[in-house]
Amino acid sequence: MSDTIKLSQARRGDCGVIVQVGDHCHHDEHALELERRLLELGFVEGARIELLHEGLLGRDPIAMKVDDMRVALRRHEAASLTVRVEPVA
Amino acid sequence: MDVAVRSARVALVGNPNSGKTALFNALTGAHQKVANYAGVTVERKEGLIRTGDGRTMSVLDLPGTYSLRARSPDEEVTRDAVLGRLAGEAPPDVIVAVADATNLRLVLRLILELKAVGRPMVLALNMYDIAQRQGLRIDLERLQAELGVPIVTTVATRKRGVEDLVSAVNAAAGHLSATSEGGWMAPDAEALRGKAREAERIMKACVRPPERPDTLTGRIDSVLLHPVGGLLILMTLLFVMFQAVFSWATPFMDGIEAGLGALGVGVAAVTPDGIWESLIVDGLISGVGSVLVFLPQILILFLFIILLEDFGYMARAAFLMDRIMGGAGLHGRAFIPLLSSFACAIPGVMAARVIDSKRDRLTTIMVAPLMTCSARIPVYTLIIAAFIPNQTVWGFANLQGLVMFGLYAAGILSALAVSFVIRRIFWRGAVEPFMMELPAYKTPDLRSVLVNLWLRARIFLERAGRIILPLMVLVWALSTFPYPPEGATQPAIDYSFAGMMGKALEPIFAPIGFNWQMVIALIPGMAAREVAVAALGTVYAVADPETATAVLATTLAGQWSLATGLAFLAWYVFAPQCVATLGVVKRETNSWKWMWVMVAYMFGLAYLAAFLTYRAAVALGGG
Ligand SMILES: Nc1nc2c(ncn2[C@@H]2O[C@H](COP(=O)(O)OP(=O)(O)OP(=O)(O)O)[C@@H](O)[C@H]2O)c(=O)[nH]1
Ligand SMILES: [Mg+2]
């Protein structure tokens, strides 16, 4: 079984694969720009994600491994990424 | 134009932190700033090299970017340079794409984008030493064929592969075709996805995962990025840093002080009494010397900053501080500009270029000068040494170091408070995204740390020579002439121009406890903060020749009340006394208005803080 969640809901230790980049309900300039930026930073459909660290307050921001790169993001932006979380083996 | 004679122009383009500036330095022998975080370089820098066959080649170092679709001012610099959009500047003849060999995916996408620009390109696979250490297998021939671009492997920090790169560039420049003219267009999301898939395919075909992947970075991060532990470590680091600035430097400072004192006595003995002796001993040795004493402290501060930057800690600190900064309405990327301002507000204000949103950038620029820059160290140290007893508290902390820490904290907190106010009152609006690469940790290279420290020392000494020295001659002249009338009873300085000016302005500053000697020091202190220290040195030396060779702190302790000393410290937490910073603010915001807003609000806060401090200290018996 695997779950599809917003990356902003992921917790430390979660692993998965990005299935959708961009919030496809909103098509304002802001959302489109964010989508392009995420793509440029390596958040593309199919990339492997592992959530490594969370900040103290509100568990925000989050640090993760995207394929083999480490990136930090706020949960607010992470909300426009959908991931399929894989159960830990 | 004759292509053969004109020197070829090469631009270094690549992702942030891939080693472009290190390569630029290796090629040109320059000493541009290199550090282990994204966004170090924010402006274009050009350098010339002479190639083997005697021709020259011009090399352009550019800010790093993930895409030509520039979003922030630093990335615009790169885009405009690559596309030749700058007025009076042709696009580069050859693009050198600089890649971190251990982190290829994103740069492959960028290269595919760069190919649309239609310029000859060479790929420099940099950090090849790390790739080899990790046992990363890159099929160079296949990669070369896939990309259609010649590849050179380099180790910029060891100057390895530099000659190969130059010959590859020369060969590529030979193929200069006048045909293709910039077919680049800003890609939309679908185009980006397509390029990313293509990059992924090339990656799979040419790169095999490392045999010995870097696991150290992950292990260090689990300590340094621990939600609670990480913050504690950050606080401890800052605390140790400011303690060290205080305690480690003392023996060196004592040495310099003793040396200068002996020099003063020696010079006084060999020069005939009178005006020359006064100029050299009072004006130069007491004035400039009182600033030179602070070289060890400034170098210790820089040693810490350089080590943290090279190790790769800055991005982690930004991660840990993000929520707190965000709460104050600061952009996530504001942290590094603000931290750079600990060294000097000028690079801090410039580093704000990495922030894309105009308002957030402006907020960051407006508060950057509140961070305690190294030019405040002489002022703080002098006053602390004069008024705060050198004793140990709580069994481990040095009280003077603690006060220093408090002054730094005051700067940080007021920066947060001011940005909070700006956000609340002027610019309510969307929070900008925070996205940042966390680079792999690297062991700082001893040689480059030492070179950086030496560059810092040189900048400090040059400032002393270029700014402080001439100003001290002026201060000395103003405090010496005109000579007192025959039969004068007061010290000579009371009758001088400086004395008259100081006394005329004294009423403005009397409510905050400043005497007229301090007012004299504040005026040249507008040029740069540490000048005030030099000016105090000169003013008191002229006023009382006995003190010319004494330690300035001792003189001040005798002349000022504790309340006055503390008010002076409070003043310097806020006062915008640095013409160079104001100039850069004007340039970076492209407006006089914001510069004047900064001057007004900072002077306002300085006066208020000094007033409150003075009154409180007097009320508590420190008057
Ligand atoms: N081991 C190793 N380290 C390198 C090499 N080249 C650069 N570095 C290090 O990588 C880090 C980044 O180097 P920079 O030259 O500042 O990178 P940049 O591409 O100019 O970065 P931005 O200006 O932020 O875009 C520094 O810590 C360098 O010391 C290399 O070939 N080998
Ligand atoms: Mg650089």
UniProtKB/TrEMBL annotation, chain A:
SUPFAM superfamilies: C-terminal domain of transcriptional repressors (SSF50037). The keyword DNA-binding does not apply. Keywords: Iron. SMART domains: FeoA. Residues 5-85 form the Ferrous iron transporter FeoA-like domain. InterPro entries: Fe-transptr_FeoA-like, FeoA, FeoA_core_dom, Transcriptional_repressor_C. The keyword Iron applies. Pfam families: FeoA. Coiled coil: none annotated. GO terms for molecular function: transition metal ion binding. This is Ferrous iron transport protein A.
From TrEMBL, chain B:
Keywords: Cell inner membrane, Cell membrane, GTP-binding, Ion transport, Iron, Iron transport, Membrane, Nucleotide-binding, Transmembrane, Transmembrane helix, Transport. InterPro entries: Fe2_transport_prot_B_C, FeoB_GTPase, G_FEOB_dom, Gate_dom, GTP-bd, P-loop_NTPase. Its main location: membrane. The chain crosses the membrane at residues 223-246, 258-276, 288-314, 334-355, 367-389, 401-422, 464-483, 519-543, 550-574, 594-614. It is a multi-pass membrane protein. It is found in: Cell inner membrane. One of its GO terms (molecular function) is ferrous iron transmembrane transporter activity. Residues 7-175 form the FeoB-type G domain. PROSITE patterns: G_FEOB. The keyword Transmembrane applies. This is Fe(2+) transporter FeoB. It comes from Brevundimonas basaltis.
